[in-house]
Amino acid sequence: MVNASGSSAPPPVTPDWASAGWSVAIPQRASRGVRLSSGFSALAAATVLVIAWILTPSDAGLGTHQQMGLPPCNWIVAANMPCPTCGMTTAFSFAAHGNLLASFRTQPLGALLAVATAMVVLIGGWTAVSGSMLAPFFSGFFGKRFLWVFVALLLVAWAYKIGDHREYF
Fold first, then answer.
1. Assigned domain for 115 exists
2. Going by C-beta distance under 8 Å and a sequence separation of 6 or more, which residues neighbour residue 112?
3. 87-136, pLDDT tens digit by residue?
4. Tell me, what DSSP letter sits at residue 30?
5. 19 SS3 class
6. Is residue 157 part of a domain?
7. Is 137 among the domain residues?
8. One-character DSSP codes across 100-143
9. DSSP letters of 57-77?
């Protein structure tokens, strides 16, 4: 390749598993600290899903959190408008009961987060037990772009929840 100054420059390096030192043939082994943190993450995620499974999902699409002794959503009470996370507990409960369609209809982002929580249980548990780095490529996944995508998904899910609450759908 020839750049603007006329000298040749090496082609841009595209990061991949092999260039990062990871190989399918020689799997990366997790350190004791990584195994412990993976186990803790898996346990925390499993606890969330067990609590969601114990709760009975509300057919109204929100309010399931009240079964844990929490008050009703103040946004609904004060403004008759759902908050950005309204329906998350209900969506998690539907997902924990195996009803992913009802979970998604209740709160789309809640359904995605419930599935992601289940993945943390599986991947974190596997890493903790076996020491195998099942998915080393996740290390670079969480950055500014991920944050912006998450905020966009939250806003879209909130708009959906407002439309659902006002019975536009």
1. yes
2. 153
3. 999 999 999 999 999 999 999 999 999 999 999 999 999 889 988 876 55
4. P
5. coil
6. yes
7. no
8. HHHHHHH-HHHHHHHHHHHHHHHHHHHHHHH-B-S-GGGGGTSS
9. PPTTSS-GGGGGTPPPPHHHH
Average pLDDT value for residue range 65-75: 93
pLDDT mean across residues, the chain: 85
Contact 4, 87 (CB under 8 A): no
Q: Is the pTM of this model over 0.85?
A: no
The answer as to whether 38 is a domain residue is yes
pLDDT at 46 over 70: yes
CA–CA gap between residue 81 and residue 109 (Å, rounded): 18
Q: For the chain, how many structural domains are there in total?
A: 1
C-alpha 137/C-alpha 57 separation (Å) is 35
| Close Cβ partners of 51 (under 8 Å, ≥ 6 residues apart) | 68
E strand or H helix at 88: helix 88-96
Interatomic CA distance for residues 136 and 109, integer angstroms:
25
CA distance 85 to 75: 11
Q: What is d(CA 84, CA 162) in angstroms, rounded to the nearest whole number?
A: 9
pLDDT tens digits for range 122-141: 999 988 998 887 655 566 66
Instruction: Provide the token pair at 164.
Output: 């659902």
Domain residues for 74? 32-130+143-165
Q: How many CB atoms lie within 10 A of CB 96?
A: 21
